[in-house]
Amino acid sequence: MKKRWICLFVENEIGVLARISGLFSAKSYNLDSLTVGVTEDSTISRMTISLTSDDKTFEQIKKQLSRSVEVIKLVDYTDNPIHMKEILFVRVNGCSNVDITELFRISKVFGATIIDYDGTTVLLECTQTENRNDDLIALLQRKFTNRIEIVRGGSVVVEAVSISER
Amino acid sequence: MGITGAELFVKALKEESVTTLFAYPGGQAIDLFNALYGEKDIEVILPRHEQGLVHAADGYARSTGKVGVCLVTSGPGATNLVTGIATANYDSVPLVCFTGQVPTSLIGNDAFQEVDIVGITRSISKYAVTVRKREDLAETIRKAFYIAKTGKPGVVVVDLPKDIQRAYGSDFYPKEITIRGYKPNTSVHMGQLNKALDILRHAKKPVFLIGGGVNIAHANKEMTRLAELTGIPVITTIMGKGAIPTTHSLYVGNIGIHGSYAANRAISNCDVLFSIGTRFNDRITGKIEEFATAAKIIHIDIDAASISRNIVVDVPIVADAKKAICSLLEKAEPLSVSEWVNEINDWKKEYPIDMGRSGLTPQMVIKAVNEIFTDAVVTTDVGQNQLWTTQFLALDENRQMLTSGGLGTMGYGFPAAIGAKLGNPHKDVIVISGDGGMQMNIQEMATAVVYELPIIICILNNGYLGNVRQWQEMFYDRRYSSTCMRYRKSCEIGCNTPNHCCPEYTPDFIRLAESYGAKGIRVTKPADIKDALISAKQNTKAPTVIEFIMDREINVMPIVPPGNSLNDMILESEEHGE
């Protein structure tokens, strides 16, 4: 089992998202995240799909996706140099002054930003890799158990230009 | 102003050379039917149920090679197509299904007879789309036909809202179309082909395993030449049967859980398995870990997703079967494999598929069909009737078999025959059905009668849902749960001993046929089989139902029990006395 990344260019039409996500559910393929947005060409949408699977299943997933009429192009980013980011919002409720100081410190360490605040509630934004966001969530869950709300955007990926590390 | 969407729809059908349309009207399709009214170039066939309709279009498409075209209304009209769409798509049959839809302004409002048919059929079709703008209509229809018939053929659903049907717009219908995400493979990778030929050159025990792809590509003549040129024996799947004439000396038989002993043995012992147009479905491989373990495997398929999915192959080749076979014909050489062929022939003699029992048997009926109908399309239903037909029916360039191989849809055989007869008026069309499946679309008898289609319907009546009963007998301690078709309220609970006191069969197929205006013949002994078939052949204006009363517990043999390897077949059935 291995983490995989696919970039999928699809027709920007009604039902295409359903077709792609339906393929995953119909064939019992595991799907970690799927994001979609329109590209510079408004008739084309770009999906970033992350999933965990073995090699054989992954080959089949790529073939099944490619044979869909609505799929224009599939790029496998699994072993390529890429930049990937996921937007994460965390709302922390019922904060004391000590909590707030702690949150500011945490933000600094994790490269997150406090984007909103009203004295007892703090809103963090963190745009990092999925793994780093996982780490931040784990930490906040430990420190502020039952007081946090998580909003995750799913990863987007773009191929690297000259950087060879992720 | 221009023309209405409905008028453009009719124009599009003509441009696509559609001459037969399988159609059932309704509120949201009424404008389309209005535009078809009095149309001379398109024969509109009105079946009696939308499921029968789509199977008929399927039978038409399989037997003619043309696209089958359906037109139904929204809601239940559309949902009644679902089983037929899945059936056709699973067997790669080109269909375009037009469904009426509520006006675009009402979509999503739970309007009367509104369903999201595109959503419902998304996972069982090749492509499904709702036309949302009148200006997209022509291109969408052109696209639908192109997608349905190219590449690996399949079903396309085109949902037509009522306001689109009524809206005026251009009458332009495009001839050419390009779809940027859809580029069917039209070439053969010569490097891969050479690799395959290299492996073949060193083979001592090669076999061809041929699936439905060769029949779909109409590459039967080329396949026969390739077998003859190389001298390699040919094994087929159920869907591939007929790829070379079944009487050909190089033809071994069907592979699979009801395949022949020789074919399964040959697969298990071959050193090169050269497969074309099969997806290695579980019904043909048996226990997958023990499938063709000694062989290098070459696999040609038009669908990249069918390659190395169930079986890991050594040489994958993504190509159309006909193109690949033609390329092979240019390069392949004769092999000296006569010893291997003799070995297979010995296995054939050792355990031929033969029912070897007295009384009226399916084998006798199908052998008689072989003798009497030399230029024919034979459809089957699903279950034992289908398996016996795939075992005993002889196929060649003049005799074709249509069967629901992938989905295994009971109720397929009879309506498919209606479509086949409409597409092949000069051929004999014979249905081999069971008593169970026949009742699933019996209403189409009216269609066959009103269109004067002299279809010959052979019902192998054993009073059971026989294939399930066979499994219950062999693997479930004879617990005949819900499989007896002669059951009545008065019967003893848990009865598993059919005998002469069993209640009468319902319905009486002969009287049923007669009530529709068809002919009915009941056959109870072997001596009457041929007379019945000949008399049916002479009935040229209406269908004939021949009910063959079978022993109740005949099994399809041999069988590979579930979970076993192809090597591990049960060859003969234990007999239970009547």
Strand content of chain B: 15-25%
- Number of H- or I-type helical stretches of chain A: 4
Strand order, largest beta sheet of chain B: 3-2-4-5-7-6
Cα(first) to Cα(last) distance of chain B is: 74 Å
Mean pLDDT of chain B: 96
Number of helical segments with 4 or more residues of chain B: 23
CATH topology term of the largest domain in chain A: Alpha-Beta Plaits
- Radius of gyration of chain B from CA coordinates: 24 Å
Low-confidence stretches of chain A: none
Task: Tell me the helix content of chain A.
Answer: 25-40%
Q: What's the CATH H-level homologous superfamily of the largest domain in chain A?
A: ACT domain
Oligomer: heterodimer
Question: How is this fold's topology laid out?
Answer:
The complex is a heterodimer of chains A (166) and B (578).
Chain A: E1 2-11, H1 16-26, E2 33-38, E3 44-53, H2 55-66, E4 71-76, E5 82-92, H3 97-110, E6 113-117, E7 122-128, H4 130-143, E8 148-159
Antiparallel strand pairs in A: 1-3, 1-4, 2-3, 5-7, 5-8, 6-7
Chain B: E1 3-4, H1 5-15, E2 20-23, H2 30-36, E3 43-45, H3 50-64, E4 68-72, H4 76-79, H5 82-90, E5 95-101, H6 117-121, E6 127-130, H7 137-149, E7 155-161, H8 162-166, E8 168-169, H9 190-201, E9 206-210, H10 212-216, H11 220-230, E10 234-236, E11 251-254, H12 261-269, E12 272-276, H13 282-285, E13 296-301, E14 315-318, H14 321-331, H15 338-350, H16 362-372, E15 376-380, H17 384-392, E16 399-402, H18 413-423, E17 428-434, H19 435-438, H20 445-450, E18 456-461, H21 466-475, H22 509-516, E19 519-523, H23 529-538, E20 544-549
Parallel strand pairs in B: 2-3, 2-4, 4-5, 5-7, 6-7, 9-10, 9-12, 10-11, 12-13, 13-14, 15-16, 15-17, 17-18, 18-20, 19-20
Antiparallel strand pairs in B: 1-8
